Amino acid sequence: MTYYDQHLHTHHSFDCQESFENYLALSPGQLVTTEHLDLCNPAEDFADSMPDYDAYTAEIAELEAKHTIRILKGIEIGFVKEHWPAIASYLAGKDFDVQLLSVHQNGKYDYMDDVVLTLDPQELIADYYTRMLSAVETADSCNILTHFDYGVRRLSLTPEAFQSYAEPYLIPLFKAVIEKQLAFELNAKSFITYGNRLLYNYAVPLYRSLGGKLFTLGSDAHRAADYELAFDDMSEFLKGFGVSHLATYQKGKLQLVAM
Q1: Which residue segment(s) compose the domain that 51 sits in?
Q2: What are φ and ψ of residue 16, in 5° steps?
Q3: Which GO terms describe its cellular component (predicted)?
Q4: Which of 32, 53, 93, 127 has the most CB atoms around it within 10 Å of its CB?
Q5: Crossing angle of helices 197-209/159-179, nearest 10°?
Q6: 182 closest CA partner among 159, 210, 161, 156
Q7: What is the tens place of the pLDDT at every residue in 145-196?
Q8: Could you give the CA distance from residue 75 to residue 73 in angstroms, rounded to a whole number?
Q9: Is 105 a member of any domain?
Q10: Which tens digit of pLDDT belongs to each residue from 73-91?
Q11: Strands of the sheet with 98-102, listed across from one edge
Q12: 187 φ, ψ to 5°?
């Protein structure tokens, strides 16, 4: 099996208008989209951003009847601990092939909002990674931890400063990721768009040194033009750390694919 992009959004996500059809034209043999689930979403004036599962499932069924490509179902869970009971209620009984775990907000603001520029970087990092650890410890059904750097994208940090501030939180986080058998995502927006390759250059060997073995690549595409963005570059990057296989998920089950 050929590896395929496991972090994509369509018009079923609040911040995207892209169609399935445009991704289908680029997908090799199967396609999975991972639509946003963010409750009390600061980016939407604290409205709930919840994909309509019935409409999502129905559209996939219609498309599969017309195409030979298999279409998988995915969700990107925006974790806030106080929202977890409602998130778990939404997920109950729904059939997702892959579940991504993200921390986008803290109940007051999104970590991409301008307010983070007024905060002490050390306090922000402590808040963000403490919440991410809680997410990993709580969300047992998830498969992939996405864009580990989302909370620091607005900061201008050297890798050395990031290591100094974040490592006391990253070590227990990565240990929990490994214990829960989550895959660690290399996110193309982080890697390319936000220029955080050097943060991965620090984080990947740290994760590996703690016993981490599972990796995925995700474009985080919100338009078909970004499908599999920078996959060749990120694959070569991982190979430099001795990684030879990537994790894929169908019906929540892990399957490793050679790069």
Answers
A1: 20-258
A2: -145, 145
A3: cytoplasm
A4: 32
A5: 40
A6: 210
A7: 999 999 999 999 999 999 999 999 999 999 999 999 999 999 999 999 999 9
A8: 7
A9: yes
A10: 999 999 999 999 999 999 9
A11: 47-49, 30-41, 70-78, 98-102, 144-145, 183-187, 215-218
A12: -100, 125
